[in-house]
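Hi support team,

I submitted a single chain yesterday and got back a structure, but I'm not sure I'm reading the token output correctly. Could someone confirm the output below corresponds to the sequence I sent? I've pasted both exactly as they appear in my results page.

Thanks,
R.
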Amino acid sequence: MFDKLLQVQQQAEEIKKRLDAVTVYGEAEGGKIKVTATGNKHVSAIHIEEELYKSADKEELEELLAVAVNKAIEQAENVHQSEMQALSQNMLGGLGNLFGGQ
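Hi R., thanks for writing in. Yes, this is the structure output for that exact sequence:
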């Protein structure tokens, strides 16, 4: 059983590394604001087109930036949940073997 737990811990660490390598995006205002993040929900870049930056007021930029960040985080959450679901299924399958399952 201890071996299975170690295996699950190793798989979780591998998933974290994979998620660090996954890139997701969030956009607002037709792509004029773009946010890049990892599958682990770490925002790595924000791009605001100069035209929008010059023409929008502070409040508008803040609102659009929040929209783009939330979209990127939502994408990251979807990827993260998929990976964790796969790990959970793998774990449950492995634990079933401990109790006489196949």
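A quick pointer for reading it: The mean pLDDT is 87. Let us know if anything else looks off.

Best,
Support desk
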